[in-house]
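Input record (Table S2, row 173):
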Amino acid sequence: MPLNRRIVIYPGSFDPVTNGHLDIVQRACRLFDHVVVAISHNPLKSPLFSLEERRELLELALKPLIRRKKVSVDVFDGLLVQYARRRGAGAIVRGLRAVSDFEYEFQMALMNRHQTPEVETVFLMPDEKYTYLSSTLLKEIVRMGGEIGRFIPPALIPKIRQKLTAHRFHNNA
Ligand code: PNS
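Output record (4'-phosphopantetheine complex):
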């Protein structure tokens, strides 16, 4: 399938999605016709949220863009570059928050380019207010009863709190 320069894949664990991820999706929407938010199925990372839960949270957060067909949410298994080829995407987008992200991202981008040179990686910077935000810190703050209203869309807060409370209860039982 010929690669479409107007379709971009935004891959990640999204465990769970944060406003930082959503900021990157919005920026990518301005540059590309269609953004495929692709949740990686990587059991080695032992995500807290199941694939279906992560998909549900993303779909809820991205509802208006999905309705306008600017964005779709998918799950992928195996190599990202093979998935990008299957989807006919010409590019992969990743967010860069700080210099600390750079080494890992650079290594991945070059490894992906080595495997599939025709798929380009594009880095986008989120709004400065999200440079310190990560899914890992978000989960820690919820677990310890902190305030997360600025970090995820309001509609997602009850679902995330519920999951983390259930998880804590299960682990303490
Ligand atoms: O949100 P994350 O956890 O930083 O996303 C990492 C992700 C999913 C982009 C990366 O682990 C990935 O591409 N996984 C798919 C398997 C793959 O292609 N691995 C080789 C990368 S060079």
